[in-house]
Amino acid sequence: MRNSWLIASREFMERWNSRSYKIMLILGPLLILLFTYFLLKFGDQGKNSLRVLIADPANLFDNKITSHPSQAVEYLFYDTYLDYEEFRDGNRFKEFDAFVEINEKVLQNKTVKLFYRESPSLDIKMKIKFELERRTEERMIAEFTDLSIDRFRQLKQPLNVDFINVYDPKNQADNNRGWVGIFFGSLILFFIGLFGMTILRSTSKDKSNRVVEVILASVRSSDLMLGKIIGIGLSALVQLVIWSVFVVIGLFVFKEFIFTDIFDPSNYEGIQYASDIKNDILLNASSSRYNAFIDLIFHRINYGVILPVFFIFFLVSYFFYAAFFMAIGATSGSESDGQQFVIPIFCLLLLSFYAGFVAMYYPDSFLATFFAYFPFTAAMTVLVNVSTASSASGLVQVLFVLLILLCHAFIFLKIAARLVKNGILNSGHRLNLSTIWLWLKKS
Questions:
Q1: What is the mean pLDDT of residues 316-328?
Q2: pLDDT tens for residues 90-116?
Q3: Which H helix or E strand runs over 92?
Q4: How far is CA 213 from CA 205, 221, 442, in A?
Q5: What is the structure's pLDDT at 163?
Q6: Cβ-count burial of 127 within 10 angstroms (0-12 exposed, 13-18 middle, 19+ buried)?
Q7: Which of 192, 211, 254, 401 is positioned for an S-S bond with 206, CB 3.0–4.6 A?
Q8: Euclidean distance between CA atoms 181 and 26, whole angstroms
């Protein structure tokens, strides 16, 4: 093992002293932060004007929402019961952008449902919410109390307005957190592809310039294999950790110094109301409502769970795939041979992207379950499941998937060790499946 660590140190320092490696240490997190900046900056691009149809069969609101209507939101009343499916599919309702259902129990349960065709902007959502809330308060005062409006508003509770896509009333297409899993899974695939090719090129280079012959005079082939995999993997891990530190610092800077108006509700200027009404709005408004990506990045991602899972599956998946790249580099007779045999591995990496989409949109399907246990796609699928907290994200199942991946990594490292032992000193031959099978049978 000591020899493996010596080779690992050599490989790590070779990467560390590379100019391109140091450039990517800075450029990589900057690109991620730049992408995040645009998500935060332009995350709210919904409709800025709405025609809203209000179904109020009990006439609770007396055909009135506000005494100061604006051009941004136009309210029209419908005096009979209307189902959201009828609104969605009926031709006579196509001119309306949204539909509000006012049931007879709204004064008791303080809940209103708004079905939209296209997602409104945050300004419009806030405006509709608080106009409906103010009107509900006025009706509650007239119906149930002898209090003045000001006194009642001191005792009030906020109105719950559920904004629902009329084409997806159960919100089944809200997969924001699933994209988080795909992002982390893509990072794993990116680093595996990048540093896996580094393993292949390093091995092929050592074979072509005969350096490997000198090394194998002092160490075993298995020590050489582990040394290369560990050293290059350590450089990948260091780069990943440095990226993580820079991204965390960048997100902190975004929150504290750049997007202070978004994170601080007291700076929100999107609603035009009198000062007393605006203060009332801000007291009941959460900063997470201002931007869906802010809500996702700073509130909805459970970093305490997904980051440990990410790093664990990154390490295990790296060793699993590194065995393939090392075996190809050690057994190929030329660099072009190695590149041809890498194509199936990259096809399997691309399959992981498909597995991520299946896990996100069909988490309970047989295919999603299969991809979760299939070692080539396990990392991506598990990260999507953990990020969405779907049925496949239970701790026991994640540990079971990890155990399967560990076993396969160990098996393929053993296979790669045999191929390296029998093929590392061979060159100038044509690599084919029969040759690989012959070397596998050799002890």
A1: 93
A2: 998 999 999 998 887 887 777 888 999
A3: none
A4: 12, 10, 20
A5: 63
A6: buried
A7: 211
A8: 24
